[in-house]
Design a protein that fits this description.
Layout lengths: L7 H8 L3 H8 L7 H14 L5 H8 L4 E6 L6 H15 L3 E6 L4 H13 L4 E4 L9 H8 L4 E4 L9 E5 L1 H14 L5 E5 L5 H16 L9 E3 L6 H10 L7 E4 L2 H13 L9 E5 L13 E4 L2 H17 L8 E4 L2 E3 L10
Parallel strand pairs: 1-2, 1-3, 3-4, 4-5, 5-11, 6-7, 6-8, 8-9, 9-10
Antiparallel strand pairs: 10-12
Helix pairs in contact: 1-2, 1-3, 2-3, 5-12, 8-9, 10-11
Length: 341
Amino acid sequence: MRSKQPTIWDIAIKLNVSISTVSRALRNAPDINPETKKAVLDLAHQLDYQPNTIATSLRKNKTDIIGVMVPEFVHAFFPSIILGIQEVANAAGYKVMVMQSGESLEIEKHNLQAMVSSRVDGLILAITRETNDYEHIISAQRKGLPIVFFNRVVDELQGSKVMVDDYKGAYIAVQHLIQTGCRRIAHLAGPENMTIGRNRLNGYLDALKAHQVPIEDELIMHCDFVDGRARACTQRLLTMENRPDALFAVNDPTAIEALICIRENGLSIPDDIALAGFSNAPHGAFVTPSLTSVVQPIHEIGGLAAQLLLRQIKAPQQFIPETHVLDTTLVIRQSTRAKPE
């Protein structure tokens, strides 16, 4: 059975002082007698008294807590973002409440309601792959909840956004594949409702156009961040009569699923088929062969999202939403061919 938490009433009764005296002593008010203050603090320590943060937040209309909601914890990308958020939030005196939606729209809705009910001061959000109805998010914003979107953003939602240059990242990855001699390049694509999916697809298409490489619709398959779908799509590509000589994947988890499928089919990477991903996940450097990938400034994404949210919390009337697009680079590893001399 859960024991009753001591309150300022308990301290006041034991010391035969008023509740206001206890409250002032706990707040280190200057107008309190030093001996009384010491007695209050000593008893509070003895009783293991903890302030009622809910009551305090109701009085202040502020909890000093920011929420973070991400689609999954399975891969390193989102946990790494959270570390960047926590560093900035903690330095500013804020605590961080983290929830994950499991790539489910319904869980996202439930978690958002829990965040609102918990009176978080603001929210940093990456939507799920299922999210195509935004009323729950818009409703929270109408209630005054500041929200900053990152990575998985959509044009329909208003607010500050932090993302990387997905278009450029995809373009340089596909251009690298072309420059190594690949001509039949498939794309394992992301969700079309998300900006990152569209921008990475457009980068892929424009790189092909710029180098006069034919675009073939049958080589574009939407895996949509669904576990197992990348492997199934890769298998379909490998069984084509004229199979691709390279794959560009929307992210590294998708690329690694493809890598496993290619190896299971007895093909050599990159000799039979080259492979490039996006996000530079830590395990991408340790798979065999190591994965060529687009590098994102993950820590900076989290830190910048937190900075934008804290600015909005502190001055909501003066704050104007901002969109920040961070640069990407390409790290070349063993999964792609060397450029011809």
